[in-house]
Amino acid sequence: MPSVLIVDDLLSIHEMLEAVIQPTGFNTAFATDGEKAMARYKEEKFDLVLADIDMKPMDGITLLKNLKQYDPTAVVIIMTAYASTESAIQALKYGAFDYLQKPFRVTELIETLKRGIEFKKFQSERAVSGLVPSGNVNDIEKRIIGQSPAVTKLVQQVNKLTTVRSPVLLQGENGTGKTAVAEVLHNSLGPEAGQLVRIDCSLSSDANFRDGLLGQNGVGGAWIEQAKGGTLFLQHLQCLPTDVQEVLVSVLRNTAHGFRLVCTTAEDLERLVDEGKFNDELFYRVASFPVLMPPLRERPEDIPLLLKHYAGRVVNPHFDANLVEFTDDAVMLMSTYHWPGNLTELFQVVSKIVSSSETRVITSQQLPLRLREIHHWPSLSEYLSGQEKQYVDMVLRACHGDKPQAAKVLGVDVSRIG
User: Fold this and answer.
1) Cβ count near 389 (within 10 Å)
2) DSSP notation for 357-385
3) Pair 284, 156 in one domain
């Protein structure tokens, strides 16, 4: 039977919870404060921890932090007696699975425990020594192209996330590859998984949107049902109206254990929370694992690999696109352009050039004018110091050795150009 460690400084609470929990198929154990709970968890590693927030000497939030540090897979449910949800939101922020506000109904308690066990079971089934399930490493490498430090870090993050089912929030500018990462995470569920249900929250004004996502009574609509066993993919989450955000909290609380939840945003949701423009509880429910997608301008060393990858996807009537080559000056211009549209813009540029070219060698003269205009290039201060020499050399070559012109482009004194 699944085990629950109940942590509360009132013995009467222990007795009451034991009386209602044990008949439903759970083994119970008790601790009267956070310190005792930590010691007992280390000895037995319970399936669930049900902890009161107001305890001494170690309160429930501190216990939660310590448990998650000791065991990131710990499933902790916080009980709070406060009228406001401020403390409960804080618990979600630090990784609580859910919270119960006293006085709670017995049915609510049991349902929350059952959802916690389902979540724990999924975590246990997928935790294979922290490794990606067989076949998914290749999937990641095919979808996330690059060898820069930023991409290496991203691949490592995604690798780890394929072994868990906690909600993932992909943050970054448009065109940085958030959809590709979401698809990798969905594919990691395996061939027997359900659907990847993609919902664009920027279309929330559509008449069918609320019914499809929230349902008639805020218990989840058809899209939630379709996502069971698979992935619910909410794009542009920052576009959700405030009233939809509030109902979505309730929907996710009751259904999120049934699917992987992946959300994307092009804005800083935490800042929007601070400004009162985004629901704080929704933020902490979707952002268990925030992932920052690097913009293309911060990974210029990946441009050559991306050019080869994208060129190979294009059809050209004259030659095999896999044989396309870009001249050094073309690569230099594309590596120093700021790419406001990121990967999407790069693919569009490569696709247009390669599909219409009559030769397989692409020169700088075939690039769009905006890529060839020096005033569009970023200043040297936008690049990391470790890339300074390489960048200076590229700009100097583009200026045909004219140091004053290169200095003007870089925004530095001529004396800094060796």
Assistant:
1) 10
2) -SSSEEPGGGS-HHHH-GGGSPPGGGS-G
3) yes
Question: Of 348, 245, 342, whose CA–CA distance to 302 is shortest?
Answer: 342
Residue corresponding to tokens 């000056």: 329
* Each residue's pLDDT tens digit, 250-264: 899 887 678 899 999
- Look up residue 132 and give its DSSP letter: P
Q: Do 271 and 195 sit in the same domain of this protein?
A: yes
Residue type, 75: V
Helices 403-410 and 388-398 meet at what angle, rounded to 10? 130
- Residue whose pair of structure tokens reads 């003007």 in the numeric block: 408
Instruction: State whether residue 413 is helix, strand or coil.
Output: coil
Asked whether 117 and 1 are in contact (CB, 8 A), the reply is: no
For 183-231, write each residue's pLDDT tens digit: 999 998 888 888 999 999 999 888 789 899 998 877 789 999 999 889 9
Segment (H or E) for 289 = strand 289-292
131 in any annotated domain: no
Q: Specify whether the backbone of 356 is left (phi greater than 0), alpha (psi in -120 to 50) or beta.
A: alpha
Rounded to whole angstroms, how far apart are CA atoms 240 and 222?
Answer: 18
Contacting residues for 345 by C-beta, under 8 A, at least 6 apart:
175, 339
Distance CA 336, CA 329 (A): 11
Range of the domain at 309: 297-416
- For tokens 């067989």, the residue is 134
Two tokens at 363? 């020169």
Q: Are 158 and 144 in contact (CB under 8 A)?
A: yes
- Residue 326's beta-bridge partner residues? 362
Instruction: Confirm if 114 and 159 have CB atoms less than 8 A apart.
Output: no
CATH number of the domain at 410, please: 1.10.8.60
pLDDT above 90 coverage of the chain, percent: 51
